[in-house]
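Tutorial, part two.
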Amino acid sequence: MVLAVEWREASGSIRLIDQTVLPDREEYLDITTVDALVDAIERLAVRGAPALGAVGGLGVVLAMLQGSREGWSAERLDTEIDRVRLARPTAVNLAWGVDQVRPAVTSGVAAVLDQARRLIEEDTAANRRLARLGADWILERTGKDVVRVVTHCNTGALATTAWGTAYGIVHELHDRGRLGLVYADETRPLLQGARLTSWELTQDGIDHVVEVDGAASSTILRGLVDVAIIGADRITANGDTANKVGSVALALACARAGIPFVVAAPSSTVDLATATGEEIVIEERSSDEVLTLAGRRVAPASARAFNPAFDVTPHDLISAIVTELGVVEPAKNPHPRLLAPIAG
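Running the prediction step on this input gives:
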């Protein structure tokens, strides 16, 4: 199984698989500076909520090592750690990973690295547990012997420390012999579904098709799938979820079709300090991602772009939220603190 994030002891570096060049090439980045790490995060060489949590923890180690080499003051070190923490504002796991290890900074690099490694080990185990819980819930809820799935963006090993969240459920269903055809949304504008999810499905021998984002709602309404399974970059206390833009369209179609819409994420993605989705800051990315293709402009020179990276799905459209700590059903049980039982 591919590792999206790995600590390299000998070089004191973070090794990342460069997800911007998949599936054409499998290349790795060995990151030794905060500048390089922030750049990798911002341009999505590393992405996915759990993977960003691991990067947040290891990024503090990286900043400490660079600070030691370059003689940074304590104030400069704090500033550089904050740069890592804030590199992507919508994804709560990045800040969470930094915050989990930051108290150990005064104890030295080894203590922080131990904490970061613990986060990675716990995330891998959490992915396995939530995959089992999610598969159990879906099979019971649908009553199907074989389940056809639509998914959005990428939530597999490339987006986590291993195995996957929403993809982990798909993989679990496959291993049980209970998975039918998977519809993988291409996920415009950066094609994480076509490039990354399809690559992982191919590696794992899972039967699938890639569909354009605009086809997903019709796929659901035509009865071609039994469940939609997506990940999340932030889940608020009331169960609203932020995920890759286009997710809410699947939720609306599922509500119309009467099939389950499932969100799967580690408990670290649950942000009890944020009450509702209205409080989530939505990252807006470069116009070039929309107006150009392979370096060539495809829109008129005067055209402008609107490029939000995420959208928010209201809790009343969500059939189940699955973390490693359990499953809740927001549409059935709305409550301001709904997520507390399955939050980390």
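The chain has a mean pLDDT of 95. In part three we will examine how such features are distributed along the chain.
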